[in-house]
Specification:
GO terms for molecular function: dihydroorotate dehydrogenase activity. Pathway: Pyrimidine metabolism; UMP biosynthesis via de novo pathway. Its cofactor is FMN. It comes from Bifidobacterium catulorum. By secondary structure, the protein is an alpha/beta fold. The protein has a single domain, classed as Aldolase class I (TIM Barrel, Alpha-Beta Barrel). The protein is built from 13 helices and 17 strands. It has an 8-stranded parallel β-barrel, surrounded by 6 helices. Strands 6-7-14-15-9 form a 5-stranded mixed sheet. Helix 4 packs parallel to helix 6 and helix 8 packs parallel to helix 9. The longest helix has 18 residues. About 5% of the residues have low confidence. It binds flavin mononucleotide (FMN). The site of flavin mononucleotide has 26 residues, from strand 5, strand 15 and helix 12. Flavin mononucleotide (FMN) binds next to strand 5, strand 15 and helix 12.
Length: about 375
């Protein structure tokens, strides 16, 4: 049974991306920074609060993430933590892993507002099967935000210019407490007429810019659009292999995680693993991103405004079985191929039981975007359980 959500999401879906960037986070995350829970916080307020906070008590973290000590390998994946204020609030709310939103080599605009709608798959359990006709026929999307929550995520991966995100990312890293880690996410940017070599070079440039902030580990988004309609970079494993080789040459021993979308074919997934982790180019996989579906309103018309937005990524509760499936298959491959890559399970984690389910499936770490947005206390609930 579904019911209306009550907590204020730390990202306000009724405001533009730019407004969220400038004024967020909201709700409990704003309170964690010492700001006004309703109206967000100003940079001055945050700076004041941070200067007043006492240093955290020293302790020995119980777990590790790519060799770096962390208290609980649970956090928020790339996307909803737009800048240092968001990542600092996440740390204070007990998320020991905070991924700084995917950055690019240059400023990149956001898709038109709105970007987030509530998504209601047809099935009684609210699950969206990536291979189903429903994804092509249309899934209802509107403003009824209910639990279990599923949403559209149609931003187009906006980024600030490096002049803005580099110092902000550096500050974000410095705000991590004992047993906490800031993970930067980045991706290459494709332009019309760009050669394959230029596209690889853009990834390398962005990785170098991230390295300059002092990153200890980094994530590269390969579940982003590639050449051809509805094709993602991770649907082209040889290209991912070439890019990760070039990036790895740039970043040396720093662990590289790649973010994968759902890959339905076992053969495709094994090939991806062999040409990346199997070659020592990639140390971890974070999966999944979103499931692509056509979104329609109650009249059957396109739900999100503008050309090229008939389909959107769906995330939240609807995609949990797909996320778990990818984690199980990656864990089985790891065993069979004798490799030792890390697995970060993402997709539809909204309760402490979901966290446990992902760990049992073979995830070394777990992250929640949609679940944490609407239930900012999720990390504490997992720690209490
Ligand atoms: C608001 C929002 C923005 C996102 N932006 C990005 C992004 O910039 N880069 C990325 O790799 N994934 C992005 N994602 C995808 C998430 O990292 C995650 O893979 C996906 O939402 C599935 O997890 P969930 O079911 O817990 O939401 C975004 C998700 C949300 C909700």
């Amino acid at each position: 049974m579904s019911e209306e959500t009550t907590a204020t999401p730390f990202y306000d879906v009724d405001r533009t991306y730019e407004d969220n960037y400038a004024s967020g986070p909201f709700g409990a995350f704003a309170e964690a920074l010492g700001g006004d829970a309703k109206d967000g916080v100003t940079a001055d307020q945050v700076a004041r609060t941070l200067n007043e906070s006492a240093p955290e008590a020293a302790h020995t973290p119980a777990e590790s993430f790519f060799g770096i000590p962390v208290d609980l390998p649970f956090g928020i994946p790339a996307g909803p933590l737009l800048n240092e204020r968001y990542t600092t609030a996440a740390f204070r709310m007990g998320y020991d892993l905070a991924v700084y939103k995917t950055v690019r080599s240059h400023a990149w605009g956001c898709n038109p507002f709105p970007n987030v709608l509530a998504v209601h798959p047809r099935s009684a359990d609210g699950i969206l099967d990536p291979g189903s006709d429903e994804c092509d026929d249309g899934v209802l999307a509107d403003h009824r935000f209910e639990t279990p929550i599923s949403i559209s995520n149609s931003f187009g991966v906006p980024s600030q210019d490096p002049d803005v995100w580099q110092p902000d990312m550096q500050r974000a890293m410095e705000r991590a407490g004992v047993g906490q880690l800031l993970v930067p996410s980045f991706q290459g940017s494709r332009h019309d007429g760009m050669t394959a070599a230029e596209y690889v070079a853009d990834h390398v440039t962005t990785a170098r810019l991230v390295m300059e902030t002092g990153a200890h580990v980094m994530e590269m988004n390969t579940s982003c659009p590639n050449e051809g309609h509805n094709r993602l970079l991770c649907h082209a494993p040889d290209q991912v292999s070439t890019i990760t080789e070039a990036v790895k040459n740039e970043i040396g021993d720093t662990p590289l995680i790649i973010k994968l979308a759902y890959l339905p074919s076992d053969g495709d997934l094994e090939y991806m693993v062999r040409v990346t982790a199997g070659r020592g180019l990639v140390q971890g996989f974070s999966t999944i991103n979103t499931i692509s579906a056509k979104l329609v309103d109650a009249q059957g018309a396109q739900a999100l405004p503008g050309a090229g937005r008939d389909r959107s990524g769906v995330c939240g509760a609807a995609i949990k079985p797909s996320g778990l499936d990818m984690v199980r298959r990656l864990a089985a491959l790891r065993e069979r191929l004798g490799l030792d890559y890390g697995i970060i399970g993402v997709g539809g984690v909204t309760t402490p039981a979901d966290y446990a389910e992902y760990r049992a499936a073979g995830a070394d770490a777990v992250m929640s975007a949609t679940g944490a947005m609407w239930n900012p206390g999720l990390a504490r609930q997992i720690k209490q359980s």
